[in-house]
Write a structure and sequence with these properties.
six-stranded parallel beta sheet; globular; alpha/beta; seven-stranded mixed beta sheet
Length: 358
């Protein structure tokens, strides 16, 4: 079958091959036919080595498709079911799951170290234990979440990561209050979803911050009340908050320099929410006096900061009701053979979200 493979960490191009086989099918597993997958910035981060991932590997974790087969012991799924891929499934038994913090379950991460593909030359890993830049994939049953018939595959794929992450940051983690002021730094697919979440919560002002003009224009269409380049944030802070700072600032880039900017633009007693996934050697620093004196809440948000199954259901309900726009987030559609063009479009900021159709 066909799949897009990264041979070595640090390479910026994928090779589309037709000699890849999905492996590992057995008890507790399901085999999926991938129909659509989104290109998420985390895929690029794994390719560059910012996020740890064994290689060679197949990127992709934001996918949807159909169940081909189910292994022994799998319940609630049948061949032919339409599903989205959950790259961080909850085991239901670990301390985090028992506390109700299923987004912190580590069971899914354990799968990342087990190859679920092979080629004649050896084993191939799937990113985050999945790997959806391929026609077929074998995953744990918990990674296959049934979706209603009225949800298109490309919409379900977005809900599988970017939409859930962004909406959840605003709704679950920060719990944005109605009438509040919000700034979102980084307006790719996750940032746009964060903006939509803040709008759903009733924020009065939502300032989108991004260096790419097309992304700023998109942010306005999705609910931002204004959009500025990074050098315009100080002026927006002064005009909107009289210099005090925003009630909520979301960092959706994953870099310490933008996290520091976010901190400095959060009002005293306000909330800084870290949504972007960054590198392990990129350290964010605050001094002990400002940490105490400013009483700013610093809240990381992992996969939307809540139960992902409930978050999927909420996203679908909001989409059905017309409260969030998911179709317009897909600005580009490509075939698997064009995957490197899609990577370039993401890196330059031309694409908001690209759907890879398989």
């Amino acid at each position: 079958m066909r799949a897009a493979v990264l041979h070595e960490i640090g390479q910026d191009k994928l090779e589309v091959l037709d000699d890849v086989e999905a492996v590992g099918f057995g008890p507790g597993k399901v085999k999926l036919r991938v129909r659509a997958t989104g290109l998420c910035h985390s895929d690029v981060s794994a390719m560059s080595g910012v996020l740890p991932q064994p290689a060679p590997f197949i990127p992709g974790h934001e996918g949807a498709g159909e169940v081909i087969d189910i292994g022994d012991g799998v319940t609630g799924l049948s061949a032919g079911d339409r599903v989205l891929v959950c790259w961080l499934p909850a085991c239901g038994a670990c301390p985090a799951c028992r506390r109700g913090q299923t987004q912190l379950c580590l069971a899914g991460f354990m799968n990342a170290g087990t190859p679920n593909f092979k080629r004649p030359g050896g084993d191939v890993f799937g990113f985050a234990g999945t790997g959806t830049f391929t026609e077929e994939v074998v995953v744990d049953a918990g990674c296959a979440v049934p979706i209603p018939d009225d949800v298109p595959f490309e919409i379900a794929a977005l809900i599988g990561c970017g939409v859930t992450t962004g909406l959840g940051a605003a709704i679950n983690t920060a719990q944005v209050e109605a009438g509040s002021s919000v700034a979102v730094i980084g307006c790719g697919g996750v940032g746009i979803s964060t903006i939509q979440g803040a709008r759903v919560q009733g924020a009065a002002q939502i300032v989108a911050v991004d260096p790419v003009g097309s992304r700023r224009e998109a942010a306005l269409r999705f609910g931002a009340t204004e959009a500025v380049a990074p050098d315009g944030l100080a002026d927006a802070k002064q005009r909107i908050t009289a210099g005090e700072g925003f009630d909520y600032v979301f960092e959706v880039v994953g870099k310490s320099v933008t996290a520091r900017t976010a901190y400095e633009n959060t009002r005293r007693g306000g909330t800084l929410c870290i949504v972007g996934a960054g590198a392990m050697d990129d350290n964010f620093q605050v001094n002990m006096f400002e940490l105490f004196f400013d009483e700013k809440r610093i809240l990381p948000s992992m996969y939307g900061g809540g139960d992902v199954l409930r978050s999927y259901e909420r996203a679908i309900a909001l989409w059905r009701a017309g409260r969030i726009d998911l179709e317009s987030m897909i600005t580009h559609r490509v075939q698997l053979a064009e995957i490197n063009d899609a990577l370039d479009q993401m890196r330059t900021g031309e694409a908001l979200r690209t759907c890879i159709e398989l």
